[in-house]
């Protein structure tokens, strides 16, 4: 049983989790940093517990304070949302040791997927296709040079411990490799405290297509189809849609089955996402697994009609998966855009300050807004500047696109820089309308989008 759920997060995802918990009759406990005292998630929860600092390390990342808050509030379960401690195996263990239920996978599964090199070795064993590359323990420049020669340039260096698009370096030619390794190591060490690298063939303008999976405690595992997240800026997602335009059912099934194989190989439980790169020939390659709820989960909810947070909570309570693979719907089309406080005129620098104007329209049919802010809020430089997500769905991609445009036009942001205008141009770009997507889309069309 879960009777009282503490949400170890803030912003839109905290509000999103509260909504489902409330609908299931579960009481909610918010936590808040010193600058979030009056934040929306605090007001929407049934109870709220103060954390003692503003910085993430003194608040939403502080395990001791979070566990104390859970104990003091009488919570019996913790939902970590995404980001912060959601993929931290030490937190998963600490929650279990405190006798609480974590809404997430076992620590061992988080650990297995937390290191990109180790995860790739595991996936190769499970028969999941990988991008040709090198993820060995011999970290000498010579080992990387041999691998790069074998694979062929361009290649991509990644931090084994990496995430968030940080620490990746494209290497075009053999004579650039040594210098690139040195600089990638420095960056990886600074960002993740770990300088191990791996190398992959750099695919030319692939698509990013990911599979949502769910597994229960009884060994059942299903996939809830795919999301196309190819529209990225600097390897960070900006817009996501489902299903992936043009993806044929046999390929969807092959990717879904590979994802389920991957999840089974590590004894996965709960919600997870397998990220793949898809090339123009229809070959797909495992990139990484995210062992948590994704930012873009609403597009999957829209095409399936399911509530993914509800599924997470039911699985955490020990219930079996609510549906079998054959019963999982796929209907219509859905698109989400991420509305950020950031300045497109200055290289999308995160913006902070007062959100002087913020108006959300009443959503019409096939429209949804997941946000965590209100007019007058102070947007803090300490946290991710995501204001919210606008989601639309409809019978087909074009109806969905029109509904999302309408929703975005009726959403007003002022007094702070935002990417609203950028998103409006993106949704109206002829190449986007035509559905021709790959990870180079924004770079290629930058002149018209900025
Ligand atoms: P992170 O964990 O830092 O977000 P990922 O490994 O998930 O990094 O990759 C993020 C993005 O970088 C992908 O969605 C894709 O656009 C690009 N990318 C990653 N690996 C490759 C590759 N081998 N070839 C081309 N693009 C890649």
From TrEMBL:
Q: Which domain of life is it from?
A: Bacteria
Residues annotated as transmembrane: none
Cofactor needs? biotin
Residues of the whole record sequence present: 1 to 450 of 641
Record keywords, A-Z: ATP-binding, Biotin, Ligase, Nucleotide-binding
Q: Where is the Biotin carboxylation domain?
A: 1-447
Kindly provide the name given to this protein in its UniProt entry. Answer: Acetyl/propionyl/methylcrotonyl-CoA carboxylase subunit alpha
Q: Has the keyword rRNA-binding been applied to this entry? A: no
Q: What sequence ranges are listed for the domain ATP-grasp?
A: 120-317
């Amino acid at each position: 049983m879960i009777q009282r759920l503490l949400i170890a997060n803030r912003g839109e995802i905290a509000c999103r989790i509260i909504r489902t918990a409330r609908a299931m009759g579960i009481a909610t406990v918010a936590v808040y940093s010193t600058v979030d005292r009056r934040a929306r998630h605090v007001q929407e929860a049934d109870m709220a517990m103060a954390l003692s600092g503003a910085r993430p390390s003194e608040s939403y990342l502080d395990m001791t304070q979070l566990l104390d808050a859970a104990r003091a509030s009488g919570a019996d379960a913790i939902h970590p949302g995404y980001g912060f401690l959601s993929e931290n195996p030490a937190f998963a263990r600490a929650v279990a040791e405190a006798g609480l239920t974590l809404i997430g996978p076992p620590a061992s599964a988080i650990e297995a997927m937390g290191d990109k090199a180790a995860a790739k070795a595991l996936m190769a064993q499970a028969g999941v296709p990988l991008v040709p590359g090198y993820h060995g323990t011999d970290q000498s420049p010579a080992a990387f040079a041999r691998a790069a020669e074998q694979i062929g340039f361009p290649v991509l260096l990644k931090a084994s411990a990496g995430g968030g698009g940080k620490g990746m370096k494209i290497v075009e030619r053999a004579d650039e490799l040594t210098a690139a390794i040195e600089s990638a190591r420095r960056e990886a060490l600074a960002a993740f405290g770990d300088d191990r690298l791996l190398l992959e063939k750099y695919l030319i303008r692939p698509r990013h297509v990911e599979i949502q999976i769910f597994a229960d405690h009884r060994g059942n595992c299903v996939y809830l189809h795919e999301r196309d997240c190819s529209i990225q800026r600097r390897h960070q997602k900006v817009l996501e849609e489902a299903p992936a335009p043009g993806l044929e059912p046999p390929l969807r099934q092959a990717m879904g089955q590979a994802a389920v194989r991957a999840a089974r190989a590590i004894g996965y439980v709960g919600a997870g996402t397998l990220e793949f790169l898809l090339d123009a020939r229809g070959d797909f390659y495992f990139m990484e697994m995210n062992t948590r709820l994704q930012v873009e989960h609403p597009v999957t909810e829209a095409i399936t009609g399911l509530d993914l947070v509800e599924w997470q909570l039911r699985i955490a309570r020990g219930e079996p998966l609510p549906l079998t693979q054959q019963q999982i719907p796929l209907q219509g089309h859905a698109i989400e855009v991420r509305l950020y406080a950031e300045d497109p005129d200055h290289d999308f620098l995160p913006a902070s300050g007062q959100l002087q104007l913020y108006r959300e329209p009443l959503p019409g049919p096939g429209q949804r807004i997941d946000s965590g802010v209100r007019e007058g809020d102070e947007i803090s430089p300490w946290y991710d500047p995501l204001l919210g997500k606008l989601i639309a769905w409809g019978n087909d991609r074009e109806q969905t696109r029109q509904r999302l445009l309408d929703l975005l036009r009726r959403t007003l942001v002022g007094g702070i820089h935002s990417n609203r205008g950028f998103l409006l141009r993106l949704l109206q770009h002829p190449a986007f309308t035509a559905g021709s997507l790959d990870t180079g889309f924004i770079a290629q069309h930058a002149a018209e989008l900025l």
